[in-house]
Amino acid sequence: MKADICEIFGIKYPIFQGGMAWISDWSLASAVTNAGGLGIIAAGNAPAEYVRDQIIRTREQVGGKPFAVNIMLLSPFCDDIAQLVIDEKVPVVVTGAGVPKHMAKWIEAGIKVVPVVPSTAIAKLVARMGAAAVVAEGGEAGGHVGDTGTMALVPQVCDAVDIPVLAAGGIGDGRGIAAAFMLGASGVQVGTRFLVATECTIHENYKKKIIKASDISTMTTGNSLGHPVRALKTAFTRQFLANERNPDMTLEEVEAFGAGALRMAAVDGDDKNGCFMSGQICGLVTREQSCADIIQEMFSEADDLLRGASKWVK
Amino acid sequence: MKADICEIFGIKYPIFQGGMAWISDWSLASAVTNAGGLGIIAAGNAPAEYVRDQIIRTREQVGGKPFAVNIMLLSPFCDDIAQLVIDEKVPVVVTGAGVPKHMAKWIEAGIKVVPVVPSTAIAKLVARMGAAAVVAEGGEAGGHVGDTGTMALVPQVCDAVDIPVLAAGGIGDGRGIAAAFMLGASGVQVGTRFLVATECTIHENYKKKIIKASDISTMTTGNSLGHPVRALKTAFTRQFLANERNPDMTLEEVEAFGAGALRMAAVDGDDKNGCFMSGQICGLVTREQSCADIIQEMFSEADDLLRGASKWVK
Q1: Contact B182 A175 (CB under 8 A)
Q2: Mean pLDDT, 10 residues at a time, over chain B (314 residues)?
Q3: Which of A209, A298, B261, B263 would staple B275 via disulfide (CB 3.0–4.6 Å)?
């Protein structure tokens, strides 16, 4: 059975844009929604007022078309934003980094909830709690990541739950989309490729770094803190790793060193102090394009592969 | 263009069986070759005499059908085995963990060389050196692994080289095979699923552990030594990790702690001291089957998916 992500979420293409803190604002989210995908505003650690403003601006651009808010469950403003999405009648909520305690309330308010999950155990838990779908995100992804790779995670999550699964992590072109369908997913979530979208408002330095990056340009930091983050290898990530290995630094000191680094990358393009989140697929990303061009190109490539797939039949 | 792995290597199904030290012996290799894949004898750290014996026994089982020897380039017996495969006219050599310095000599002797690569840079290097194909192995795999996940690695390696690419890491059923084709690979290498093959001679405890394992049952150790190894989480891996983090232990002491652990898992099934190598796809492996059944089932599943792939066209 082909689960229809497009029908469930009211979108043209079964693609979600990743909720990336300091990056996924109204500009990117509305461009993705207007291009036929599901645009997602990342709440990150921002206060509710900021997120409300982003929702209003997104609505100005997309009219009645669907979009989502990605709520980071570790945010100090998580409770406020959990209420905000209800008040603002946001159609879809995507959650990351934990199990969403507000889920019953959201579902009661008619919101479709799509948790990003790193394992079959969490997928099963949120499916029982009423999730509309899950994003099975492999360790190839940028930002906060789990340990299991997409190729291993997606089929195992598909076997574990009865709700639709979107694949994320390592998907940068039509090959990744077609592969995701073969693994059992009904759609994809893509982050890194949208970093270089024309409508993505990050600093030009950030986009240049992504375009220049290769398959081995990323690393994870924060493993010792229990929440690894994948980003481009830079002076910042090397220093962060050195701090983690420094027995004279407390975990709090290590954590404090990273404060503000995402903003310094996204807003200031700060080579030295910024943390430039990226997935391992960055080596495939070679030029800036509009969200509409990115989505149409990816699905056109996927369609060609899927139409020709029978040539591989033994 | 569809690269024909079957034609190049003289096999029926485009599947290599992973070369796993202490595991991939004549029994497993010959069963895979007789089932239509490419069986591979793992030389591991064993001396040339052992490998010669394995080659002779494999030939007794497969007659003139092709098989390979996997040469671990870090082995103390690497030079001896490099000559042995020439003397024994082994048709295919697969190499892991480094750049094969004996490559020109092998190619001159008519041997097809297939390096396992963790990055586009090494793929390009071995392609220039005359490799017949590469195995792009993602970090989901068991044993010695790189950092990049299969979903991100395979398309980037396919773009980087003109020779055929086999995908490895996270492939345990037909979904993985079909996905690998979509990513641009012309075939697959599978390790973990063959651990539970009837013809695999490892200890019964090892097979039971694989069958019981879930998506989060593995971890990597040895990161601080520069050569991470993925295995099932056990008392051994936890202690190895603790040793790595112990500032009072030298790298040599940490390394010495792991000596013999693969043998203790494969031969003795030793719960406490063994290192049970496994890929992240172990959660999909649910029963013992013959190599022929495994291969036929995997390709039958893949064929169904590939035939039906056009239903996903947008």
Answers
A1: yes
A2: 84 97 97 98 96 98 98 94 98 91 96 97 97 98 95 98 98 98 98 98 98 97 89 96 90 89 96 96 98 98 96 90
A3: B261
Do B261 and B169 share a domain, yes or no?
Answer: no
Do A294 and A227 share a domain, yes or no? no
CB atoms within 10 A of CB B248: 6
H or E element in which residue A107 lies = helix A103-108
Are B305 and A13 within 8 A, CB to CB?
Answer: no
The residue-averaged pLDDT of A269-277 equals 96
* pLDDT > 70 in chain A, percent: 99
CB within 8 Å of chain A, chain B residues 51-80: none
Task: For residues B196 and B277, state if they share a domain.
Answer: no
A139 belongs to a structural domain:
yes
Domain boundaries, position A225: 204-281
Sheet of B143-144: strand order equals B143-144, B229-232, B218-221
Q: Is there a contact between B284 and A159 if contact means CB atoms under 8 Å apart?
A: yes
Q: Give, rounded to a whole angstrom, the gap between the first and last alpha carbons of chain A.
A: 23
pTM exceeds 0.90 for this model: yes
Report yes or no: A25 and A41 within 8 Å, Cβ to Cβ.
Answer: yes
DSSP result, B34-92: HTTSBEEEE-TT--HHHHHHHHHHHHHHHTT--EEEEEETT-TTHHHHHHHHHHTT-SE
pLDDT for B99: 86
CB contact under 8 A, A284 and B175: no
Q: Does a structural domain hold residue B108? A: yes
Give the per-residue pLDDT at B245. 86
A13 and B CB contact within 8 Å: yes
CB pair distance less than 8 Å for B150 and A149: yes
Calpha distance B174→B192 (Å, rounded): 14
* Inter-chain touch A139–B156, beta carbons under 8 Å: no
Per-residue model confidence (pLDDT) at position B47: 97
Q: Does residue B147 sit at the A interface (CB-CB below 8 Å)?
A: yes
Do residue A159 and residue B313 have CB atoms under 8 angstroms apart? no
Q: What is the pLDDT of residue A2?
A: 59
Number of domains into which chain B is organized? 2
State mean pLDDT over A115-134.
97
Chain B residues touching residue A283 (CB < 8 angstroms): 120, 152, 156
**Residues of chain A contacting residue B140, judged by C-beta atoms under 8 Å apart:** 148-149, 151-152
Inform me whether the C-beta atom of residue B216 falls under 8 Å from chain A C-beta atoms. yes
For residue B120, give the nearest of A140, A151, A214 by CB distance. Answer: A214
B162: domain CATH number is 3.20.20.70
